[in-house]
Amino acid sequence: MWLCVAFIVLGVITLVFYLLEKCKSYSLRGVLIKTVVSLFFIATALLGAFQNGSHVLNPFILSGLLMGLLGDIWLDLKYVYPKDDILYTYSGFIVFGIGHILFVTGMILEFFNDGNWLLFLIPIGGAIAFSIANLFLAKPMKLKFDNMKWIVTIYAFLLALNPLTSLILCIHTNWNVTGLIMLFAGGLLFAISDLVLSKTYFGEGHEKPLDFVLNYITYYGAQYLIAFSLMFI
């Protein structure tokens, strides 16, 4: 437990250095520091998986967090190499989307051992509604998705499916599993982070230090909650 806490503290300290670097400029040094932050949340999950035994959820969370690390790298490289902006942005969306699929799959396999599978029509329906609303709200929110509209729509569906699935599973287990509650909270923070990020990527006037700080606090809060949840499965 204490080693996990140490990883989280070290991750927070490294994140501060990363934010200071990013607020100054976009650089490969910033990408490297960001990668170290991500390695700390993966180390947290590895320790949790080692201590909780052979739960089916473990490889899915670890793989999902690895996708997060790759996404962190791609989405920062888009600023370092602006000529390849589209390539890195697509790559980031794809690996983060795969990460959400892994989280959702792992949670279902771990926590849904019996019951009516029609229960999952609720999170699926909610995720569809969220992705459609995201398109309709783009104009009033002054967001320009342009040619990325299709991947943004798919990603919005997967982003919403993550916390909605964990919410349904929390209800299904009567809110008795601490790790699952942490996964739900992590999914919510993930969604908040990406809503902030969408304004930065597709809007105007949202590339201020405060926007970056809010995005990364919620994002890494999500990743560390997801990683630390393996200690409480």
What is shown here, in short?
The protein is an all-alpha fold.
Question: What's the structural blueprint in terms of helices and strands?
Answer:
Elements: H1 2-24, H2 28-52, H3 57-80, H4 85-111, H5 121-136, H6 149-172, H7 178-202, H8 209-228
Helix pairs in contact: 1-2, 1-8, 2-3, 2-8, 3-4, 4-6, 5-6, 6-7, 7-8
SSE order, one letter for each helix or strand: HHHHHHHH
The shape is: globular
Helix content: over 70%
The CATH class name reads Mainly Alpha
Which structural category fits the helices and strands? Answer: mainly alpha
Query: What's the CATH topology name?
Result: Rhopdopsin 7-helix transmembrane proteins
CATH architect. name? Up-down Bundle
Number of helices: 8
How would you describe this protein?
- With 233 residues, the protein is mostly helical.
- The chain has a single domain (27-232), classed as Up-down Bundle (Rhopdopsin 7-helix transmembrane proteins).
- It is 79% helix and 0% strand.
- It has eight helices and no strands.
- The chain has helices spanning 2-24, 28-52, 57-80, 85-111, 121-136, 149-172, 178-202, 209-228.
- It starts with a helix and ends in a 5-residue tail after the last helix.
- 41% of the residues are buried.
- The mean pLDDT is 88.
